Structure formats: structure tokens, C-alpha cells
Amino acid sequence: MRIVIIEDEKPAAEKLKKSLLKANQDFIIEAVLGSNVAAAEWFSTHSMPDLLFMDIELSDGLSFQLLDNIKITCPIIFCTAYDEYWQEAFEHNGIDYLLKPVSDEKLKQALNKYESLKKYFAQNLQLLLQLQQKQTTEFKKRFLVKRGSDYISVKTEEIAYFYATHKLVCMVDNRSQKFILDQSLADLEKETDPSVFYRVNRKYLVNVSAIQKIKAYPKSKLELELQPAAPEEVIISQESAAAFKEWMGS
């Protein structure tokens, strides 16, 4: 872990550095900076560290001045002899507020807190990205299809399912009308909302509203009863059954 210390008292800075390396010899202390000016210069030419230890009352003013002028995105553990700044500290990326002299036990607790927060957000990062993608992705609202010599627009919400047959892909709407499309099921899967349409097998992409019944099938498979009725049995394999059940219950 890459750490930067901002502390204007050399004995305090040296003690903190030794305590950090005692806690974990793999820590990398990238810089020990003694003022707002020195810190501003350092951050202008270096990448953001993983963690910042910061005193508040420095020789050239409060360290909040630095934070108000430079965008610091890493977590900060404040180390100070004064207790009146705690509220402002937590408004500036603060994850802990340690009063001097900082004991090894208090330092260990602060580091454990950092690791816990890091682990929590790492575990939930994928979920957050998926949620963001769902919020920003624009899925198709309608499909232009051919009926005879004319073209009509079918709203996505009116589509019961898509299915592949004899190298063709067909779309069936809620009124049992069937249309032939010039797209693959893979492309249609990308263009439709995954919370509404599910690829139940290699031949069918189904709207959840079209599923009338889910029936047990031999060898732990599932059979779907669709409305309008499908032209053949719609079977979900044993390997895919658990994921489908989870999707239906989400």
C-alpha cells in the first residue's frame, strides 16, 4: 500500500512512519511532507496514494486549505493534537480521526478500518457497475417489422418472445402475430432489457410476462408454458435452471 504523510513536526512524522512500517513492513511511505505548499507541489507531479495521513495545523496554515484547492480522492486518516476539527475532517475524505500521541493500537484500528472499507467497496464494485450500466443503457423501445408489403412498429413491451427456427429468427407478439426478423438472437439479447427478457436456451428469448407456468421436467430440467403458445416445447437445461430461477425471483 502506498502511503503519504503530511506532518510538519519531524519527530511526530518519524514516529508515525516507524509505526506504520512496524504494522506492515510492506507499506511504501512515498513521501513525508511538512507543509501545504510542499504537499501541493508533490501532488501536482505524482499519482494519488492509496492512503493519506494528515496533520491539521501545519506551519503554513490548516491542511483543509490544501484539500479545498487540490482534489484529493484517496481516504485520509487525520492525526492531530486538537479535537475541534473532527467534523470538518470527515467532510474532507476522512475515515478516521486520531488524537496525538497516536498509540500503536489506535493506529492498528484505523488501518483495519481502512482495509474493511476497501474490502466492502471492492466486493460491491461489480454490483455498482451493473446498476450504473442498467441506469444508463438505452434498450430498444420498438421494433420495425414487415407485414406483407408494409412495415409496422411493434413496441418492445408487446413482444412475447423471439425464437430461432430453420436459420430464421421470429418474433411473436402478445396477439400471436408472428414476424420474421433479420437479426440474430444474440443481437436481440443485447438490445432488450435483461430484467424483462431472458435467453432461456439457444433458441428462445422470452419476455417474463409471457411465462404462464414453469413445470418440472425429467433430469432436473424445466419446461415453460408460454402465452401465446410456443410452436414447440421450451426446455431449460439442468445447468441453466438455477440461474433462471434466480432471475425469476429477482
Summarize it.
With 250 residues, this protein is α/β, with parallel strands linked by helices.
DSSP summary, beta strand count: 17
Structural domains: how many:
2
Strand content: 25-35%
Q: In CATH terms, what is the architecture of the largest domain?
A: 3-Layer(aba) Sandwich
Distance between the termini: 38 Å
**Helix and strand string, N-terminal first?**
EHEHEEEHEHEHEEEEEHEEEEEH
Helix/strand layout:
Layout: E1 2-6, H1 10-23, E2 28-33, H2 36-45, E3 51-54, E4 57-58, E5 61-62, H3 64-69, E6 76-80, H4 86-90, E7 94-99, H5 104-136, E8 142-147, E9 150-155, E10 159-165, E11 168-173, E12 178-181, H6 185-191, E13 197-199, E14 204-207, E15 211-217, E16 221-226, E17 234-236, H7 238-248
Parallel strand pairs: 1-2, 1-3, 3-6, 6-7
Antiparallel strand pairs: 4-5, 8-9, 10-11, 10-14, 11-12, 13-14, 15-16, 16-17
